[in-house]
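Handout for the seminar on molecular recognition.
Each group receives one record of this type.
Step one: identify the two inputs.
Step two: read the structure output and locate the region that could contact KG4.
Step three: write two sentences on what you found, then compare them with the reference statements printed after the record.
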Amino acid sequence: MAVTILGIESSCDDTSASVVRDGFLLSNLIAGQEIHRSYGGVVPELASRAHQANIVPVVDQALKKAGVGAGEINAVAFTRGPGLLGSLLVGTSFAKGFSLAREIPLIEVNHLQAHILVHFIRQDGSEGRLPGFPFLCLLVSGGHTQIIVLKSHLEMEILGSTIDDAAGEAFDKCGKVMGFPYPAGPEIDRLAATGNKKAFTFARPHIRGLDFSFSGLKTSFLYFLRDMLKEDPAFIDRNKPDLCASLQSTIVNILVSRLVKAAGETGIREIGIAGGVSANSGLRNAVTAEAAKRNWNLFLPALSFTTDNAAMIAITGYYKYLAREFSGQDVIPLARI
Ligand code: KG4
Ligand code: ZN
């Protein structure tokens, strides 16, 4: 019998619902929240309210697009955390209600694990190449920067994490200093394409092991610009592509050097990247070059699966359904995991 899972994601500022059947994607709807742009970052209170307004229509659309009736859903999976508590509460409560009403299992999903499991989503027409285990993944987004090993679909170990800002935050905060709207990552990526990445150098962290740090880079970038602006008030406008290329190259170097180190230490050659920053063209090119050099079996996510989406929650729910890992109605969301 086919297994059909409804996935719900509401951990930050995107309300998303997706239907996956037997590991194949049937639909993946995402309602973003423009409202945060003018505030320069996500405002938690506004995010929860927008989720509340979006969740029912988004689920409705996801079911329609998939051509699946509510009665055909075998289980509902939702993001339990990490994320913004008020946002998580909306998805969690919706999933609980759906599970009660349809008398189907409720499945909690760890958002980090889900970002990595996008590599296991099958789509009609895709080549269907899936990673083997153990699978080493660099997870980089606005909220997380981690090196994770998946030992099986449902077993993961975190080998390294950021001790301060996430990689996406480094893009966004440095972008803000240059006057870019939130989130600045995509615009920096675009401008970096025409800049010289060797034009400027910024501080790189000296952290042992497989952890990351980005706060020093942010400060170094800020002080550098402050000094330059004293001499030339138009410095940013005159040098945007070079600033973006140099900043991006520094962030990418920090990320890729850690991934290379982790691959060397573990001996794993099934390698992937995931999360919002995995859309970055500099990062994608750099890991592709390392993969060719080191004979990695590399997995780059489709761009539509890099940012937060419910397809990753539904696919994780699918594997948890097969393993009969269900949650009770007393499950509560967790801001941190
Ligand atoms: O995964 P995501 O949508 O949300 C979190 O879970 O955080 O990631 C959003 C982050 C933002 O910081 C955004 O600036 C960054 O991903 N991002 C990028 C690019 N596209 C999105 N950063 C660099 N280059 C990109 N092309
Ligand atoms: Zn995320």
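Reference statements: The chain has two domains: 4-127+308-322, 135-304. Residues 135-304 form a domain with the Nucleotidyltransferase; domain 5 fold (CATH 3.30.420.40).
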